[in-house]
Design goal:
Elements: E1 25-29, H1 30-40, E2 45-49, H2 55-61, E3 68-71, H3 75-89, E4 93-97, H4 101-104, H5 107-115, E5 120-126, H6 142-146, E6 152-156, H7 162-174, E7 180-186, H8 187-191, E8 193-197, H9 215-227, E9 231-235, H10 237-241, H11 245-255, E10 259-261, E11 276-278, H12 286-294, E12 297-301, H13 307-310, E13 321-326, E14 340-343, H14 346-362, H15 370-382, H16 397-407, E15 413-416, H17 420-428, E16 437-438, H18 449-459, E17 465-470, H19 471-477, H20 480-486, E18 492-497, H21 502-511, H22 540-546, E19 550-554, H23 560-569, E20 575-580
Parallel strand pairs: 2-3, 2-4, 4-5, 5-7, 6-7, 9-10, 9-12, 10-11, 12-13, 13-14, 15-16, 15-17, 17-18, 18-20, 19-20
Antiparallel strand pairs: 1-8
Helix pairs in contact: 1-2, 1-7, 3-5, 3-18, 9-14, 11-14, 16-17, 16-23
């Protein structure tokens, strides 16, 4: 989406025409060259799981004092942990696994990182070069498998190619539109002797990301902003990736136009800021969804007009001209034609827009959005995001998540799984700072939260990290709690336990006549042969305790604050709280899949009434 500005936080090798004449040369194995290369590019943490083909690399890794290896319990956990690390720190996340099933278990987190533009380097072992293509034991064509879901990938069969390939992989992953890069290394390349020198010569013909926007396009965009009556800044995750949040605040306050931040951009503009009108999309705030529909100008910054934001595409924002700025030219015009396309790094784009808007103001061209703000404020007052407490006195999932956010230490990082709890966490926790909200936005990967929280805590050990997870998501990757317990990574996990695959159940309630086919997770059904009603299978408290965690169950709203405070006070081991919540709670607002955003529902059976004057 946008240039990864944080790539400059750690040393990056330079592309050079000549050889490394000034560098010292060492005689090493390919495996030693790999570990030395990781040290030189600034990789301080690797999440991985050894196996036969990558095993040569694990021997010199044992001697490294600069690279910490965290042994995961499943390769998918390694990939999501590397992603969480990258999202929290701004550095490149690194995972390392063996060939065959080890590599294929990384496919989901690699696809996840690709969808969310996360800088990730995945290193996989491969069978010996002479055996490639023979269906050797634990052989898989992981380069072929991941070609559609990586920014680039490499197959390395010679030891002398390892150092420059690692340098190139980190450069590609962290520059331009960030993304995952896979480096597949044959076992005999790791075992062979080679020479090592740093920095290596990089050869990346054709890879030249455009970061500086065209001045003419910037001026056109500034004119449209000052001429518009109903402008909206549509801010995507690319602004976060570019480290452009300070510039965004300056631009928004300079213009006085409303700001919407997508699910991937939460925290890039303070939730509490008066110009912030909420998150747009299928479960976005009514004001944000409607602002985009009624706008006469949308300024999209590092966003991609995905279906979860636009709803039915041909009915999206029918009155709006579009300014679309993105580091990736392939995104511009892909879903919605742009009146003013701007290719460039979001930080440079926004900084240049600030200057151009200031120039318009100097010439007396200032936007008048007073009528627009009357509408926006009326919608915001009439249709705030909220919830009702259950009539039976049980725990409200929204209240649980809201209180976790309110009681968490300042600067806490929140990682969410996927489903209802993800949407509630996006609405009922306030995000005031960038990189405090981590989630799987594009791929919607269940099982993301626990390993991503682990990676975030490993990268930011001085910050509190909460994983907000569902009982369905938790059962996919909870084994990484063992990794946390054994590696002194004291994350906190809130299981929002409604006994069901909640979001799927919500759709069954609304669109499938309450026929709950295969969404019940608890054992409370009266089917013969199942445990007695009320038995918890699994018992998350016992399960978590068995993995070395401190675990609590909370069912009574009166205990909510006490339990959360108890969790916040424990920092010597992971903490898991099993919150037993009401099973019928739903996520609102909602735009049903395939419908127009004009059909947004504020709550079940509640269609907002915007009057007629907004359609002028």
């Amino acid at each position: 989406m946008t240039e990864q500005a944080t790539g400059a936080q750690h040393p990056q090798p330079r592309a050079r025409n000549g050889g490394p004449s000034s560098a010292s040369v060492e005689h090493l194995t390919g495996a030693q060259s790999l570990i030395r290369s990781l040290e030189e590019v600034g990789a301080d943490t690797v999440f991985g799981l050894p196996g036969g083909c990558i095993l040569p690399a694990y021997d010199p890794l044992m001697d490294s004092t600069r690279v910490r290896h965290i042994l995961v319990r499943h390769e998918q956990g390694a990939g999501h942990a590397a992603t969480g690390y990258a999202q929290a720190t701004g550095k490149v996340g690194v995972c390392m696994v063996t060939s065959g099933p080890g590599a294929t278990n990384l496919v989901t987190p690699i696809a996840d990182a690709a969808m969310d533009s996360v800088p990730l380097v995945a290193i996989t072992g491969q069978v010996a070069s002479g055996a490639i293509g023979t269906d050797a034991f634990q052989e898989a064509d992981i380069c072929g498998i991941t070609m559609p879901i990586t920014k680039h990938n490499f197959l390395v069969t010679r030891a002398e190619d390892i150092a420059h390939t690692i340098a190139e992989a980190f450069h590609i992953a962290s520059t331009g539109r960030p993304g995952p890069v896979l480096v597949d290394i044959a076992k005999d390349a790791l075992q062979a002797k080679t020479t090592f020198s740093w920095p290596p010569t990089m050869d990346l013909p054709g890879y030249r990301p455009v970061t500086k926007p065209h001045a003419k396009q910037i001026r056109e965009a500034a004119k449209l902003i000052t001429q518009a009556k109903r402008p909206v800044f549509y801010v995507g995750g690319g602004v976060m990736k570019a480290g452009a949040t300070a510039e965004l605040k300056v631009l928004a306050e300079l213009t006085g136009a409303p700001v919407t931040t997508t699910l991937m951009a939460l925290g890039s503009f303070p939730d509490s800021h008066p110009l912030h009108v909420g998150m747009p999309g299928m479960h976005g705030a009514v004001t944000a969804v409607t602002a985009l529909q009624k706008a006469d100008l949308i300024v999209a910054l590092g966003a991609r007009f995905d279906d979860r934001v636009t709803g039915k595409l041909d009915s999206f924002a029918p009155y709006a001209k579009i300014v679309h700025a993105d580091i990736d030219p392939a995104e511009i015009g892909k879903n919605r034609a742009a009146d003013v396309p701007i290719v460039g790094d979001a930080r440079e784009v926004i900084a240049d827009l600030v200057q151009a808007v200031q120039a318009e103001h100097t010439e007396g061209n200032t936007g008048d959005y007073s009528s627009w703000w009357k509408d926006l404020n009326r919608w915001r007052d009439t249709y705030p995001v909220g919830y009702d407490l259950p009539e039976d006195g049980s725990l409200s999932p929204q209240q649980v998540i809201q209180r976790i956010g309110q009681l968490a230490p300042e600067g806490t990082i929140f990682a969410a799984g996927v489903g209802q709890h993800q949407m509630w966490a996006s609405h009922f926790i306030q995000y005031e700072r960038p990189a405090t909200w981590l989630n799987s936005g594009g791929a919607g990967t269940m099982g993301y939260a626990v390993p991503a929280a682990m990676g975030a805590k490993a990268g930011m050990p001085d910050r509190a990290v909460w994983a907000i997870d569902g009982d369905g998501c938790f059962q996919m990757t909870n084994q990484e709690l063992t990794t946390c317990a054994l590696n002194n990574i004291p994350i906190k996990v809130a299981i929002i336990n409604n006994g069901a695959l909640g979001m799927v159940r919500q759709w069954q309630t609304l669109f499938y006549n309450q026929r709950y086919s295969n969404t019940v997770l608890h054992s409370g059904a009266d089917t013969e042969g199942l445990p007695a009603k009320g038995t918890r299978v699994p018992d998350f408290v016992k399960l978590s305790e068995a993995m070395g965690c401190y675990a609590i169950r909370c069912e009574d709203p009166a205990d909510l604050d006490k339990v959360i405070a108890e969790a916040n006070a424990i920092n010597d081991r992971p903490v898991v709280i099993d919150f037993i919540v009401h099973e019928d709670a739903m996520v609102w607002p909602m735009v049903a899949a395939g419908t127009s955003n004009d059909e947004v529902m504020a709550a079940r059976g509640v269609r907002p009434d915007f009057g007629d004057n907004e359609d002028d």
